[in-house]
Amino acid sequence: MAAAGKGIFFDGATSARRPVLIELAPELLVVRDAEHRDIIARWRYDKLDHRQAPEGLLRLGEVGGRVPARLEVRDPALMAAIDDASLPVDRSGANERRTRRKVVVWSVIAVAVLVAAAVFGVPALADRLAPLLPVRAERALGTAVDGQIRRMLDKADGKGTFECGEGGGEAEARAALSRLVAKLSAAAALPLLIDARVVRREEANAVALPGGRIYVFEGLIDKAENADELAGVIAHEIGHVAHRDGTRSILQSAGLSFLFGMVLGDFVGGGAVVIGARAVLESSYSREVEGAADRYGVALMTRAGGNPRALGTVLGRIAGGIHPGTTILSDHPDTQERIRVINDLAAAASPPKPLLEPAEWAALKLICKGR
Amino acid sequence: MNETSPFDAAAEVEAPDLPRDAVRFLGVERDFWRLLIRGSVLLLVTLGIYRFWLVTDVRRHLWNNTEIAGDLIEYTGTARELLLGFLIAIVLLVPIYVVFYLGALAPGILAESASVAAFAALAVLGQFAVYRARRYRLARTAYRGISFHQTGSAWRYAICAIFWWGMIAVTLGLAYPWAQASLERFKIRNTFYGELQGHFVGSGTRLFFRGFVLWLLVVGPLIIGVMVAIGAVDWNALGEAYRRGPREMFNGAEGAGAATAAAFAALSLGWSVIALAVLYPAFQAMVLRWWLSGIGFGKLTVTARLRTGAVYGLYWRFVRVSLLFAIVPAIAVGAIYAIGAIGPKDGMKGDATELAQTLLAIGTYVITALAYSVIYQATVKLRLWKVSFESLALANVEVLYNVKAAPSRATAVGEGIANALHVGGY
Predict the structure, then answer these.
(1) Is A107 helix (H, G, I), strand (E, B) or coil?
(2) Closest residue on chain A to B421 (Cα)
(3) Above 0.85 for ipTM, yes or no?
(4) β partners of residue A85
(5) How are beta strands A195-199 and A213-217 bridged, if at all?
(6) Cβ separation of B422 and A266 shorter than 8 Å?
(7) How far does CA B303 lie from the centroid of its chain?
(8) Cβ of residue B42 closer than 8 Å to a chain A Cβ
(9) Using CB atoms and an 8 Å cut-off, which of residues 339-358 of chain B contact chain A?
(10) B287-292 CB contacts, 8 Å cutoff, 24+ apart
(11) Best residue of A49, A267, A328 to probe chain B, by most B CBs closer than 10 Å
């Protein structure tokens, strides 16, 4: 075993390359100038910093050194001797593998914590924050979202107006809708003004915006067979308004896009994972939310004196016409299950009387027919 | 070995042959592939958190195997610094993020101006981050026991960079040579090896004349195509058709020569895209030669003899390996169709089929994207580093032999904002 040998030293003060003699003392590696034999460095074996270098070169620094002073050894026997004497010097790469394992374990833990934050933390935070938002702020939020929603929904291309019932001929239809909504609003007694409008979209659907605006699609008016079915859907949407679901989902999507987009999604291909994770998470929020809105809708219809089962009836009719998608990604929980829950809740309700007179309902049916 | 012998001879212990005026890259390509593949797997497992360790490994491989005038450079940065910098940047960016999010929800004109302001702010911040990241990389680059460092205001750089990129856009790329010359002059004049200041002598005008033919071949036909297209359209007829309403528009447009115009535009655009793909390696080789030859430190000057053929060679290898790998996504797409064809379609089992297809599609996408990143880095990035450095001839290397270290002004944290905004370089 070589206890001494030659090397090259860079002292970190200048870039001069100094030939040196290296002695392996019991605790220390001693570096002497090759010419005048003065000691220029003493490095403890446990403080050696093994730097990555090509094959055939051992490059050392000192841990905690303020300048990158370096010692280079090319003598194989001396390299082996230093490797034996010093723990941090490890030409086999075992130290590096151990560090990497630690990094991976901690990263996986961090990912688990982030996923937990996304699944539990973000919705919990949104649930706590949404009720704290004053009504005025919610209405402002609604106005802002309204512009975007209208742009997304309006496919009229200038053929007729987006909103139905704006012509003079539909005054009766408008009055009927107002009466229906007024009955529901009175029963709901929310601090917000409920503002329901019918828009030209073929789908049998309705959406609620933060702040109280509800868009009922033309397709739903066509599919509904009586005023209570329409009222049931509107009551469900009022449930979303009362629960502040729109506001909550905006807060949630902001939180999720921050969590997944900024903290994680930086590696190539990560975008797909992020989008997939968000879609699954957001739809799992909305399954709970839809269930809650159904329960609210049933209770509201009962209070308003309408038929609480009508929501279930119209849901069943709509679902008959569309192909069921993948359950985990669908916005609305399995329709049969929803109808069962609605009927269970409505079982004890008072005997229904129609919310609108037949003539009023007939007028409302025609709200989108005038162009 | 005889124990007293080292003390007898004062002769230097040298590597067998040290080319004093050249640069060599000693890395083993197999090691780099292994590093990248292992890193990609760990990226998947850690949902991307491993990226700081991967980028550190990549830099260490490139830097620590590069030998300039007989001595190796070294990357002294750590993944921990990068992670810390990233976390700090995230915290600093939260208020900006919140302001823009609220701004986008605000009604009317405020929302639109907020998104424009956000774009402008992120563009400036991105260039700021690019400069700061360069500062970090230089501070973590050591050579012969001395670190590099960078001075200069990152804000000033960001403003200049935004100005020049705007000029490039306005002039359809003609301003690029002067933009590069100006920005590189700023960067390299602010680059120091110890106390030795860098300088850049590359001339924008010279680059312009070297590259003008390439520009003509790529952008020229596009301009001509667009002009011809504009000329072919009978604008009065088109305007008349527009006034008559959307349904008339289509028929009217045909009469107005829009079809000919569209054909011309498509043809010239197709030509430009193909010319860009074919000529890009030549352009890259030309710019690299110009850039490397412009760099100097004190009396040290550099001449780059990078061959255009070598750059074409490495891109050609990238294309070959990519085509070979394309078998994997092709098989996966086949499997997705097969599942759709034989899997059950109704009820719960139908859902399972759809879910399996979705998962397979996402998995294939992620693996393909990661694989292409690995192939790109191992074929193009590594080879380009190697052939560029090995094409260099150095003059007056002696100035590097006795440079004083600059007073320490190390940065404690890594490329924070650059990582948060995804604008990293090497």
Answers:
(1) helix
(2) A262
(3) no
(4) none
(5) parallel
(6) yes
(7) 23
(8) yes
(9) 348, 351, 354-355, 358
(10) B287/B180, B287/B207, B287/B211, B288/B384, B288/B388, B289/B391, B290/B202, B290/B206, B290/B207, B290/B210, B291/B180, B291/B184, B291/B202, B292/B388, B292/B391, B292/B392
(11) A267
Query: Considering just the CA atoms, what is the radius of gyration of chain A in Å?
Result: 36
Query: What's the token pair of residue A369?
Result: 């027919």
Q: Mean pLDDT for each 10-residue chunk of chain B (426 residues)?
A: 41 54 91 94 84 92 93 90 84 74 62 73 87 90 92 92 94 94 96 94 93 91 83 72 60 64 82 92 95 94 93 95 90 84 63 76 85 93 94 92 79 55 48
To the nearest whole angstrom, how far is the Cα of B236 from the nearest Cα of chain A? Answer: 23
Alpha carbon of B13: minimum distance to chain A alpha carbons (Å): 6
pLDDT tens digits, residue range A8-52? Answer: 999 888 999 999 999 998 889 999 998 888 899 899 998 898 998
Give how far Cα B118 sits from Cα of A103, B110, B133, Å.
Answer: 35, 12, 21
Chain B contact set for A7 (CB, 8 A): 13
Mutate to test the interface with A, among B49, B53, B82, B149 (most CBs of A within 10 A): B49
A214: left (phi over 0), alpha (psi -120 to 50) or beta: beta
State how far residue B12 is from chain A, nearest Cα, in angstroms.
5
Q: Which residue has the tokens 């074409």?
A: B312
Q: Tell me how far the alpha carbon of residue A336 is from its chain's centroid.
A: 28
Distance from A106 to chain B by nearest Cα, in Å?
A: 9
In the structure encoding, which two tokens stand for residue B82, read together? 């990068």
Asked if B105 lies within 8 A of A144 by C-beta distance, the reply is: yes
Q: Which residues of A2-38 are buried (b: 16+ CB within 10 A; e: fewer)?
A: bebbbbbbbbbebbebbbbbbbbeeebbbbbebeeee
Residue given tokens 């809740």 in the structure block: A345
Task: Give A137's contacts in chain B (Cβ within 8 Å).
Answer: none
Strand partners, A199: A163, A217
Instruction: Return the amino acid letter for B383.
Output: R
Contact A30, A23 (CB under 8 A): yes
The verdict on a CB contact (< 8 Å) between A267 and B51 is yes
Measured between CA atoms, the residue of chain A closest to residue B4 is A4
Q: Please name the amino acid found at residue B366.
A: V
Give CA–CA dist B277/B272, Å, rounded.
9
Q: How far is CA B142 from CA B22, B86, B149, in A?
A: 18, 23, 10
Residues 279-298 of A with CB under 8 A from B: none
Cα dihedral A98, A99, A105, A107 in deg (nearest 10): -160
- Whether chain A has a CB inside 8 Å of the CB on B373: the answer is yes
Task: Tell me if A239 sits within 8 A of A293, measured CB to CB.
Answer: yes
Residues 19-38 of A with CB under 8 A from B: 19, 21-22, 34-35, 37
Q: Which two tokens stand for residue A58?
A: 């051992």
List the one residue out of B390, B10, B194, B305 whose CA is nearest residue A16: B194
A326 → closest Cβ in B147, B355, B367: B355
Query: Which residues of chain A have a CB within 8 Å of the CB of B365?
Result: 269, 272
- Residues A166-191 have pLDDT tens digits of 766 778 888 888 888 998 888 888 88
With H, G, I as helix, E, B as strand and everything else as coil, classify residue A29: strand
Q: How far apart are the first and last CA of chain A?
A: 99
Interface of B with A in 237-256 (CB under 8 A): 246
Tell the residue number behind the tokens 């430009």, with chain if given.
B272
Q: Which residues pair with A61 in a beta bridge?
A: A49
